Amino acid sequence: MFQRIHFISGLPRSGSTLLAALLRQNPRFHADMSGPLAGLFTSLLGDMSERNEFSMFIDEGKRQRVLRGLFENFYADASADVVFDTNRGWCVRMPALATLFPQSKVIACVRHVPWIVDSVERLIRQNAFQPSAIFNYSPGGTVYTRANGIAGSDGLLGFAYDALKEAFYGEHANRLMLVQYETLVSQPAKALAAIYDFIGEPTYPHNVDQVEYDATAFDTKAGTPGLHAVRPKVEARERESILPPDLFRRFENDAFWRDPGLNPRGVRIV
């Protein structure tokens, strides 16, 4: 059984899979792409609520033990000392995670927002003959409707963005750390050192020139080959945006974490 658990969350297309691929190089760590635990957690919460006719038999202590057992049983075969579970939904579960796992931290991956929209659009165009699960396999729409769709409150980006702000300004913000994609790809050693310091673990000599991760089967099923692709070498790559200029500008000022004046709780940002 793992000794500690931490959580990777944040915005889509912002390096969470790359971060997991790097962390799992450490033999003491288990890390992976986004998984099903957050969804199972939410379903269990609902099933143990008053909508269940037997809810009178489920008190607060039982709820917590059932939910903690979900993690313990899911990772029962993990040989690692430290587990990182990845899901964009964890930012809205900060109070629950603080109670269930008092030692846990949440590492949120973020990225300049217009480049997230650009990255999604680039994936869609690269897979022009495969409708994506991101848009419920719909083959229609324009770059504008797709941007509006992911930016909506229930969209791929919109939900994660709102969840991030909830955690960033919430009462458990001291348990949160933001890792900027721009830092992760240009200064991976700096980003990793900050993460190790944040979670209180001894550092490990990661190889940023030989990173391995393969989610081909998952991405193909999602109709989005390349969705979780990780390049072998961690490096920043300059490119021009494929978004229309007005659409790029629409999201240009959304990276609130870049303004120190908007960080009243002193969330650590690297």
TrEMBL record:
This entry's Gene Ontology molecular function terms read: transferase activity
Q: SUPFAM superfamilies of this UniProt entry?
A: P-loop containing nucleoside triphosphate hydrolases
Q: Which Pfam families match?
A: Sulfotransfer_3
State what protein this is by name. Answer: Sulfotransferase
Keywords per UniProt: Transferase
Q: Which organism is it from?
A: Dyella telluris
